[in-house]
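Record 1 of the preview.
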Amino acid sequence: MTNAVADLSAASPAEVESSLLNPDVSMVVLTWVTFLVLSVVLYKFAWNPILKALDAREDLLRRSIAEADRIKEELARIHETRQQFIREAEEKSREIISEARKAAAQLSAGIQHRAREEADILLANARHDIREETEKARIILRQESAQVVIDLAAKLIEKNLDTEGNRKLIHQLIVEV
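->
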């Protein structure tokens, strides 16, 4: 090869041009053999591993895309399920609040009813006590009135005054009582 380079550098431009157009057959064969050997070596040691790596990468990408699609669908289902749970929870909370309000209204009505009943009972007891006390007071008043009348009559009989004197005495005794 160094001869060929030396020959080309020593040759004139016309000779270089003719040697490029008419290459040496041994050089062409050697170039093709080198190319084929290099191709076989590259195919065996480089192209197969590179192609296998590319196929593996392509497989990985396809699986990743399929997995991403599956995850996306699952997230959509989870989101829908979550929304359904939220709607159900809101509905249940509304029902619970409604039932609590009804129970509170019933409890309030029950408490008011019991309070009215107790008030009526207390009022009836108070009226009964008032009637009893009034009756006792009337009895005591009658007894005292009778006693006063008896006392007045006794004093009238003792003094036996004239009619005008009796009136003054009764009036004085009434003022004292």
